[in-house]
Every structure is written in structure tokens, then in C-alpha cells.
Write a structure and sequence with these properties.
With about 325 residues, the protein is of the alpha/beta class. It folds into two domains: about 30-120 and about 250-320, 3-Layer(aba) Sandwich (D-Maltodextrin-Binding Protein, domain 2); about 125-220, D-Maltodextrin-Binding Protein, domain 2, CATH 3.40.190. It is built from eleven helices and nine strands. Helix 2 crosses helix 9 (about 260-275), helix 2 (about 40-60) packs antiparallel against helix 10 and helix 4 (about 95-105) runs parallel beside helix 11. The protein starts with a helix and ends with a helix.
């Protein structure tokens, strides 16, 4: 019995040494960052900005892999099944990493299938309409929607995406009935709104602000407590008369369960360095996106956001069933 115990202890010690050595050498090759949506949307843009700076700290490129479908669930299934060696990570948001568990109750993964790395961005939800939509402001839009229940259609990045949650939160706050149209990402939804195929979109400022500036679509509200510097004429929800509409989101990085803590620490340090860099801060300002505060860089903060939003959106979505 003593001999068996000794062999077990030796095996555990050897495994620990091997893991430590692996973490010390990490990374020795490119890292794949899975983005759960088509290229061009909020999560994709943020992922590319952050990945470029993280690569500088890690000394290896981070390759973006766009996997669209099922509101991000297809991508996160892939991420959950990846080797827990730090060479596959994923970017998620309140939709893909929290609300999805209510929307798709039979997923092949759970929140425990992932290890949080770091929050990398705070985002702000906007409702924008095709440029020739008859309503000129939020009040007129809500009045129009109430006179035409179900006839207005707003696009989003797929059921379970953060944009879908912007739509649902807006619909509930406004007390209106609208038709939601899911796409495989924010970019194709915005393209159809610009072209007039749909009435508008629920989107994050990061991916829709340029189209607003170019007057390709017209925004009626941002679900924020303060106006955005890049869109100073766009009223907040309180200013527009709908203070109940809140759409401040987040993006975070995750790794498969079992990824060694030392590797998570390296990735966390690289993410923190990235979002604190002048290059990312400038790009985020252009995107109407905000970096985490100094006390929000830890994996524990991201885990708290996931836990909070799983419950938050369970209540929102179950109330609408």
C-alpha cells in the first residue's frame, strides 16, 4: 500500500513538473482565437484589435477563426472540446457565454466548460433604423410600433448573441411587439438595414457607429447612462424617454476547462497589457468601446459577470416565453 501511494505521489509530481515546464515554454506556436460570429461584427472587431496587441506580448501570432451559427453555440462547442493547452481560446459576450444557456438548454457545454481569462471590452447597445424609416426619434418609433404590432422587423446577430439581447431588452422596456430577424453576424444584418431589406438593427456601437456617421442608417437611442463621444448627438435611453432600456455589454476571453493556471495567467497578463496599450485605447475610442477599469482585469471579475448574466437573462428570456 505504501509503495502504491509512493508511486502515485511520484506520478503526480512528475505531471506537475511537466505541466509547469509546458506553461513556462508557452506559447511555442500560433494561438487560435475563436470568434462566434461572421467577420465584421462587434466581437470580431474587438477580437482582432485585442489579438494583435496580445501577440506582441506573447511573441506568437493569434489567428482569428470565425465560426458562425446558432448564436455562437457552434463556435463555443468547438472551443469547449479543444485541447486545454492554451492554443485555443475564444471571445464571448453576455449572449454567447450567459444567455445561451436559457435559449439552448441542451447545449453540449456548460459555464463550467470554460475558464475565464479576462474581460477585454465594455460595449454599448444601439437601436438604428433604415435611413428612410418614417420615425425621426425614439418616441415616434415606439408610437409607430404600437400602432403596427409585429410589423417592424429588426435584425440582430443571431439568437443568443448580445445583439439579440439588445433587441429583447429594448422590446421589453418599450412595451412593443416587433419581429426579430436573426443573421449569422452583425455585419450582414447591418448590410440589409442599409439596403432597406429590414427596418433596422440592434447592434453595438463598435460595429454600427460608422454607418451612423455616414448616414447610412439613423440611430434613435443608445442604452447607456452617458452619451458616446463618437456619437455626441445620439440620446441616451433616459434622455430619449426610455430609462428602462439598459444595454451595456462586455466581451471576454475564455479557455477550455483544464487549461493550466500558469497559462491562464500568461494570457491574462497579455490581455491586460493589450487593453491598456495606447493602440487599443485609441481604436476602442473610435469604436465607441471602453476598456475595463483597472480593477476589472482579473479572471474572477469575468466569472462574476458570467454568473450574474446567466441569471439576468434567464429572467428576461423566460418572462417573454
Amino acid at each position: 500500500m505504501i509503495a502504491v501511494t509512493r508511486r502515485l505521489l511520484i506520478a503526480v509530481a512528475a505531471l506537475s513538473l511537466a505541466t509547469a515546464a509546458h506553461a513556462q515554454d508557452y506559447p511555442k506556436r500560433p494561438i487560435s482565437m475563436i470568434v462566434p460570429f461572421a467577420a465584421g461584427g462587434t466581437s470580431d472587431v474587438i477580437a482582432r484589435v485585442v489579438a494583435e496587441e496580445m501577440s506582441k506580448s506573447l511573441g506568437q501570432p493569434i489567428v482569428i477563426e470565425n465560426i458562425a451559427g446558432a448564436g455562437g453555440s457552434t463556435a463555443l462547442t468547438r472551443a469547449a472540446r479543444a485541447e486545454a493547452d492554451g492554443y485555443t481560446i475564444a471571445i464571448g459576450n453576455a449572449g454567447t457565454s450567459a444567455a445561451t444557456y436559457t435559449i439552448y438548454p441542451k447545449l453540449p457545454f456548460t459555464p463550467e466548460s470554460f475558464v475565464p481569462i479576462a474581460m477585454v471590452a465594455k460595449t454599448f447597445g444601439i437601436v438604428a433604423l433604415r435611413k428612410d424609416f418614417p420615425a425621426k426619434n425614439l418616441g415616434e418609433f415606439i408610437a409607430y410600433a404600437k400602432k403596427n404590432p409585429g410589423k417592424i422587423n429588426l435584425g440582430h446577430a443571431g439568437i443568443g448573441s448580445s445583439n439579440f439581447l439588445i433587441c429583447k431588452s429594448f422590446e421589453q422596456a418599450a412595451g412593443i411587439e416587433i419581429t426579430l430577424v436573426g443573421y449569422r453576424g452583425a455585419a450582414p444584418a447591418l448590410t440589409d438595414a442599409i439596403g432597406g431589406q429590414i427596418d433596422g438593427v440592434c447592434d453595438a456601437a463598435a460595429s454600427v457607429s460608422q454607418a451612423i456617421d455616414d448616414k447610412l442608417v439613423k440611430a434613435v437611442v443608445v442604452g447607456s447612462t452617458v452619451r458616446l463621444a463618437t456619437l455626441p448627438d445620439l440620446p441616451t435611453s433616459a434622455e430619449a424617454g426610455l430609462p428602462e432600456f439598459e444595454a451595456q455589454g462586455w466581451n471576454g476571453l475564455f479557455a477550455p476547462k483544464g487549461t493550466p493556471p500558469a497559462i491562464i495567467a500568461k494570457l491574462n497578463a497579455a490581455a491586460k497589457s493589450a487593453v491598456e496599450s495606447d493602440a487599443v485605447k485609441k481604436r476602442f475610442r473610435d469604436l465607441s468601446t471602453v476598456a475595463p477599469d483597472a480593477n476589472e482585469h482579473t479572471p474572477e471579475v469575468l466569472q462574476q459577470l458570467v454568473t450574474r448574466d446567466v441569471e439576468k437573462y434567464r429572467k428576461l428570456l423566460e418572462d417573454k416565453k
